[in-house]
Amino acid sequence: MAQETFTFQAEVSKLLDIVARSLYSEKEIFLRELISNASDACDRLRYLSLTDPMLLEGALKITLSLDKKAKTLSVADNGIGMDRDDLSATLGTIARSGTQAFVDKLSGEQDNDMELIGQFGVGFYSAFMVAERVDVLTRKAGQEGAWLWSSDGQGSFTIEDAERDGQGTTVTVHLAKGEKEFLEQPRLAHIVKSYSDHIGLPIVFVSKDGDETTLNTASALWTRAKKDITEEQYKEFYHHAAHAFDDPWMTLHNQVEGVLSYTNLLYIPSSPPFDLFDPQRKQRVKLYVRKVFITDDCEGLLPPYLRFLRGIVDSEDLSLNVSREMLQNDPKLAKIKNGLTKRVLGEIKKKAAKAPDDYAAFWQNFGAVLKEGIYEDPANRDRILEIARFHSTRGDGLIGLDDYVEAMNEGQDAIYYITGDDLEQVSASPQLEGFKARGIEVLLLTDPVDEFWIPSLGSHADKPFKSVTQGAADIDNIAAGTEAEEKEGDKAKKTPDVEPLIAVLKEALADAVKDVRVSERLTDSAVCLVAGEGDMDMRLERMMRQHQRTQGASTRILEVNPAHPLIKRLNRLAKAKGTTIASMADAAHLLLDQARIVEGEPVADAPAFARRLAAMMEKGLAGQTAGAKPAK
Ligand code: ADP
Fold it and tell me: Which of 37, 55, 103 to mutate to test the pocket of ligand 1 (most atoms within 8 A of CB)?
């Protein structure tokens, strides 16, 4: 077949543009990326050869070579290789979700974008940081023909028939002017040692005369003793295994021996991966069996609520000769999963106790994911509850549930909480006013998952969870935290009787509300909405509506603050002679709409709301301007 020309997917062109303009200080990382791909290709071939041993042509390795005259550097592997379809599908599009996320984040501003490259790493395409052209000569394992992919990174690439001795892939980088440093063997040796020493295969430099020098340690990092591994090596392995370029927040390397023997080298990232909230909730830790890579998509290896973990698990006991699908149901795998889960939760707990500030950063990133475990994994529920942290109305720090219970006021027998979309908004909720005034702590919950674990748990340390936006507040019987707070609370108790107003509001609002009553929880606002005792919490209902799980809205209870000047005034009006329901209707509806707006709910009838508000303002202004002279 003759040479064919293809254009890059638009995103790739965008990416290449930036890579080419790159003033990136660590251009050398392109070599790490190419070696990483070569190593993956060998891993994949080794896995296939478990069922088809004929596929393996010899010991797997990665070979580097130089041609100073032609100014080329080649990275070759005898791994799985690619056929024509693989080539056009992978080297022309963006294969990896991380790279896609990178492109999505590109702002077009050079400085920002450069920095992003450092954070993401862009795989194969990073070769164009140093290359004026890149050739990929490749032959897929088990096939006859080979293919040559070639591009100068300027919008298009070509694919043509070629020949290659043996299977695998050779990436030849034609170095651009000014990149001569990559033609020096010591420089390459240094780069390999810094970034790729952890690779389990030999990375061999072949000189022009055919002399071979192995540049790396060539044993899988996790098989080495902890004391022989530097922090840098751990970090580089994380970058490779996770395709991530942040630093690990925690590294967990254990060699477990016993009924089951396995090694884990697990990492908790310091920044959240892009796919953290993918609906599939896949875990990403790679499974090896006796150093042979099996899969990076093993459902049974870790629970979904630990999907932020990266790294590898290498088992001595699982069978090499079963399919990935059968492996998922192996009882041994379930045991490994149990052991790993306990260890990870245990280590997290230690860190929470030792370094609370550092822990807060972790919780910020992954708390929402971990909380899924509270209702999904009863066996580990208590372990998760021990490490769960929450914002509350008492200060900026995070607290645990046990801390909360410990610090409860006298007479308080429930764990109070409020849910909402963000911290600022929930902490300003009117329903919190009475609790704040009396110094009763309320947990501020802002993750959607909070709507699920709270009802599934029901209580903690025999104290039921109670939403402050639902049911009666019942806070009058709880002692205030301090004397000043006691006074503040008492003020609210000695409130005027507003029954006449309540009667009028009930009649005027009729079916639009479930009930109207005096509030124990308001001190500053005039009104608020709460859900009835057995009704769905307002935020949960809003979430369900967004996801089309439910339609319409439940009617709510309108609570009024008898100490508020507006309520007092309306109460006088309600008692006055000549006042009718009709004459109070506008005020009643405006109160309700106000409460809905604060809650984040739309007003029920926007035109009517606008009309009523305009009428009220006009009346108010008429009072103010009655004596004023018109301006000249
Ligand atoms: P990533 O390696 O993160 O998937 P890259 O852009 O580096 O992203 O590579 C894209 C794809 O090209 C790889 O997923 C792989 O399928 C293929 N590829 C790259 N290098 C090789 C290689 N040496 N051997 C086989 N396939 C390769």
Answer: 37
